[in-house]
User: What shape does this take?
Amino acid sequence: MQQNIIQKRDRYGRMVPFFYCLLFIVTFSLCFRFFTSATVEQGGDAFYKWGFIRQYVLFGDFPATLNHHVCRWAINIPVYFIQKYIGTGPGVYYVWPFLTATLSAVFSFLLLEKIRGWRTGLAGAVLVILSEPMLRLGTQFLPMGAVVAYLLGALYFLVRWQHNRNNAVLVISSLFLFFCYGAKITSIYYLPAFLVLIYLAAENKRASIRSILCFLGVFIMLLALETYVFDSMTGATLGRVELIQRSHHAIHTGNPNATWQSSSDSLLKYVANFFVYFTYPGKAPSFLYYLAFGLSLLAFVKRLRPVYPLAVPFLCGFLGTAYAITSVFPFARPERMLFRYQAAIFELALLVVVLFLSSNPVERLVGNRKLPFNAGGREIRVLLFLLLAVPVATYSFKHVKMLNNGYMKTLKTMQLVSQASETHQPVFIPYKAGIRRSIKRIFLYRLLFSDERYHADSLYSFNAALLEGRPLITRDGKTYMLVDSNGCSENFAEHAVILIDFD
Assistant: This one.
């Protein structure tokens, strides 16, 4: 029995070191996340959720007003337990992004291994680890990091259900998709993909309806429960949707400076949103998106059923992100077209290409080509894979920092803050021009490095009064701003502790 757990047979009947593949993926992912880590970004998604949970753990204070950050329960609840049982120090901040990035790689391996074999799974997992979005999601407290992990987990359990027809596994898949929705509400784009996959995998029409009702029933029950809880807490009848509408900055359709990134002012331009990815994000990611789109359609034309579990959700994410709107004339998007919101599309596109390259028809296609050099179908597929993998790896390895990575900088900064507190020295951080940028940096310091108790109902209070009278000092031509006096009221320049690595 132990041997069956450690090893599995591939599609050729050969034994493969399944356990060691998983061990390699986990180890490589955690190491790569550590060596490519960055310091904490100065944005609400990056540190506000961490900060309000920290205040709750330390002081029991909960925001009086629930904004879109507080409503991300699928992230906030796990992080609450991380802080409660591991700690609230800035080093612990990295536990959640490291964990979700590693889970994304693990589920990528399990998913592709289930569909096509361990080699394809290993190739896909390594690409996910090295991918451009994971360089940020794997080190910052951003919602899309959890979305990718939950989404790939939901797809894995759906594929398992396709193999064993166990409704309990189908329920688990629905739970993971709901967690995905709980992390970011626009993940609802992927719900139709799961219903389509269940329909395509069902043995007959009656079985497909029964399975769809099972999956959808679990999702709707959880959605009703979530709405009831938020309504009970805040009086928001529509639950989280209403709370997000109240707090999140909506796209202003009447803004004369609005661009294609936020809205379309004509029907023709809205229809042309299919091409929006050439501009947002543009460059290499857009090429990957449209390549995966073409391969996904080809998979349906050629009836490559093993590609469906990734092609269908990719198409739903691709089209949903491009065409979802909250109003017409002008056609306003729910959110701007930002690359960090497209992480799930990017990872699914990578996996679609990998899975397509490993499919049997591709083997026959490339194996029958007459080439000017001697190579079989397998060698050609490896070459095509390298054309995809080499640019991904080249870009990601540029961000490797063995000693001076973000995690080490954060620990060093915390040491300086602790020493300054013990010796009652004032703490200064690099000053950036602009009220919003300066206030964000003050909030970042408070939420990450300080044990100060504060009450904040909104994300930021962009009040210039917060900066009035705040001492500034200059060192080596650079300006620094006071963030913590530690009881010191004079001779700031003489006693100042400067957090050079705060950026």
Observations:
- Residues 205-234 form the longest helix (30 residues).
- The radius of gyration is 25 Å.
- The chain has 21 helices and eight strands.
- Confidence is low (pLDDT under 50) at residues 1-6.
